[in-house]
Amino acid sequence: MKPIRHTLSVALMFGIFAQVPFISSAQDQVRTIEIHARRFDFSPAEITLKKGETVKLRLSSEDVPHSLVIPDLKIKETITKNHPTEITVTPNNLGDFRGKCGRFCGSGHGSMLFTVHVKD
Amino acid sequence: MRRDLVLAVLGCTTSLVLTGCKVTPPGRAETAIVQWTKHTLTVGGSRDKNPVPNTADKIEAGKQAFGFYCVVCHGRDGQNTGVPFAAGMSPPIPSLASSEVQRYSDGQLKWIIENGLSPSGMPASKGTLGDDDMWAIVVYLRHLPPAGSLGEPHAYSGEEYEK
Predict the structure, then answer these.
(1) Closest Cα in chain A to B134
(2) Residue A39, in any domain of the structure
(3) Structural domain of residue A52, as residue ranges?
């Protein structure tokens, strides 16, 4: 009985470890783009994505609270200092999608714009 | 050089004597002339159409954008509720629900928000507010709540330095 349990344990562990590379390679395929918000711009202020590509956006503020609003991509996310926020987006339509800071942040708030270009 | 300085001082003094620097309410004639001038000559944008529809969510978006900083002078309701200096300015801050304001077209109201209005204390908001926000504010101005229904701006609550 013991050798069988042993064999089963080894087989189970092998199975678990054998999955790990697959999990990490799947995660590696999701591109992460860092976006920094500060008074009064986003950096970068525009990004280019491939249609159908799933991308992770990592948003962080360097000063006061901001937010990223891109209505046509259904993105509305608050951005705070010291607490980066991650969102996943998979654009299914081609085009240029305009975004902006949706949280009033001072005299240049209205010029804090962002654009997502989605290409084939 | 000295002559220029003397002339400049004389000019400034004369202007001050003629115009005065004390804030006083404008007279009827002055108000009528300035109103006519603003409505028919100086305020642009009369042909611009509002791209933002009159829907409940856009009215709310306009209210939120109005809350960014318009409330400090116009009150939450756009009718000066709780604004202590509204009547003391020259010209006084008008109720945004008044016919004086509502007679402007949507395009003119957006133009005023964007460029400010002279003579008045209305500042230009270009750069401070985005186009979408300004048009949404115009939608809100067309759907203002009853006067006093939203309370007073936080700025006048006396809590500025409270912890």
Answers:
(1) A110
(2) yes
(3) 30-119
